[in-house]
Write a structure and sequence with these properties.
The chain is mainly alpha-helical and 506 residues long. Helices cover 58% and strands 6% of the residues. The protein has a 5-stranded mixed sheet with strand order 2-1-3-5-4.
Length: 506
């Protein structure tokens, strides 16, 4: 009963923390709007992600689409990750102290930041942890059902985020390096692999049908974002993600190599080494590796609990629980949008020292990128609504944006039923070209060209209607152009642009 009550306490604490980390001054993140919009276009795949998150978005839509529900599911997956770590410790015959130590480390970690946003990352970390849990159960019990359950988890993980492939790419050679290689002589392993393939098949067929857009997406990601990823910064982030549990993780590595009761799980250590090496080779984003750590926190907690049961080392028990608490306090004031933009801009030193002001372009900015991506969206939607209500009186209006954040935010906040689109991300496939458009509202994030001269000739009237003035927003200065009375059918031009974008990275 005591075990269960403590677990419930940690789960409740997780939800309370998640809902208290975002100041009311911040809106949803630009990525969240895209994922929420996928609920209106259910499919077996998308240009940037597989389909699972769209199913969750559909469920959020059914539940009313409020911010509460948007934030609920990542918080839930974070809480379940904590529960799985608790169950891993039970399977490893760990003590109650080990469970408390690991749960404190999981609770007060970078997972709070990841579980803050509605993205595939929160479920991915849960599924990585579940894969290790089911493999522990198989290595302990050697019951083939756990191979099939692992395969199902991997299949679902593939439909959630392709990054989970790296977990298997790390585990296969790692298991071959240890005595557990005998699993490759188990026929059911290949039956389980077939189950995973069947789960993944609808998305693989979708990828084939659309010429594997994931390849184009990864190429674009590599050229625009991953090129700025430094390997030193990657390692630095690995330390910071679970800084309060760093000694526990190191203890887990040591135990897997030298602690006799964990000998059968030694492949997990080599899986970590190989997976990190793969991420470094491909210059992956630092948070791609977060799913590796919960299981090592579990191993480390069990090992330390055993060590601390002897002699003077018992006094270290409360110290190791206090470490994540004390180290979390300064991070609480830096890593989350719980301080106003004004405060951050007037106190930049600590943010800059932690590298939080560095964006994907490799440059420092006044606010952390994620925080700036949570500003200005309501203003944009309100101003587009105002212009849309005027234009809709004179015919059908297309709202065309420069990026998926703009389009998604307009669609989420619009009170006029606007369905904005963009030549960016999945919106390429969501244009409704069944009828001719009479008017155009064009959202431009940068004025590399004169939009009035560029699009004006196709319409009878044109004007700069408004712009985003929120000084904290990454979209500050974004212009809202209005064009009325189309002189020609613009749909052929739109199709040409869609095809050009689709082939740009092929």
């Amino acid at each position: 009963m005591k075990n269960r009550l403590l677990l419930i306490f940690f789960v409740i604490a997780k939800f309370i923390l998640q809902y208290s980390l975002i100041s009311p001054e911040y809106e949803l993140h630009r990525d969240e709007y895209l994922h929420l919009n996928q609920a209106n276009h259910l499919a077996w795949g998308y240009l940037s992600v597989p389909p699972v998150n769209s199913w969750l978005a559909w469920l959020i839509k059914i539940l009313g689409g409020s911010v509460f529900w948007v934030k609920f599911f990542p918080a839930l997956f974070g809480a379940l990750t904590l529960v799985v770590v608790w169950k891993i410790i039970e399977e490893l015959q760990g003590s109650l102290y080990a469970k408390i130590l690991a749960s404190t480390g999981i609770l007060l970690s970078a997972l709070l930041r990841i579980n803050m946003l509605f993205q595939p990352n929160s479920l991915e970390i849960l599924l990585w942890t579940l894969i290790y849990y089911t493999l522990i159960l198989y290595f302990n019990l050697e019951k083939v059902k756990w191979l099939y359950i692992t395969a199902v988890i991997f299949g679902i993980g593939f439909l959630n985020k392709y990054n989970i492939v790296f977990s298997v790419l790390g585990l296969i050679p790692a298991i071959l390096l240890t005595r557990q290689r005998k699993v490759f002589l188990q026929p059911h392993l290949y039956g389980a692999a077939l189950v995973a393939l069947l789960i993944m098949l609808p998305n693989l067929i979708w990828q084939y049908k659309f010429d594997f857009p994931v390849v184009s997406h990864m190429k674009e990601l590599s050229e625009r974002q991953l090129v700025h990823v430094g390997r030193f910064g990657f390692f630095k982030s690995q330390i910071l993600f679970f800084i309060g549990s760093l000694l526990v993780i190191i203890s887990g590595f040591y135990a897997l190599l030298f602690y006799k009761p964990f000998e059968k799980f030694r492949s997990f250590f080599w899986a970590y080494v190989i997976t990190i090496a793969l991420f470094l080779f491909f210059r992956a984003k630092d948070y791609y590796a977060v799913g590796l750590y919960p299981v090592f926190i579990a191993f480390g907690a069990v090992f330390l609990a055993h060590i601390f049961d002897k002699g003077w080392k018992k006094f270290l028990k409360p110290v190791f629980i206090l470490i994540p608490v004390l180290l979390f306090l300064p991070l609480y004031n830096l890593a989350f949008p719980n301080k106003s933009p004004e405060y951050i801009i007037s106190h930049p030193e600590k943010y800059k020292k932690m590298g939080l002001l560095r964006w994907e372009d490799g440059k420092d900015h006044p606010l952390p990128q994620d925080f700036a991506d949570m500003q200005g969206w309501k203003e944009l939607a309100q101003k587009v609504d105002k212009e849309y209500s005027q234009l809709s009186r004179s015919g059908r209006t297309l709202v065309l944006c420069d990026n998926y954040g703009q389009a998604g935010a307009i669609n989420y906040y619009s009170k006029k039923g606007v369905r904005a689109v963009s030549f960016n991300a999945d919106y390429l496939n969501w244009f409704d070209l069944s009828k001719r458009y009479d008017n155009l509202i064009r959202i431009k994030e940068a004025l590399e060209v004169d939009e009035l001269k560029e699009s004006g000739p196709y319409f009878e009237t044109s004007k700069l209607a408004d712009s985003i003035t929120n000084k904290f927003s990454r979209e500050r200065g974004t212009k809202i152009f209005s064009f009325t009375g189309a002189k020609i059918d613009v749909r052929p031009k739109i199709l040409d642009e869609i095809n050009e974008v689709k082939h740009r990275y092929q």
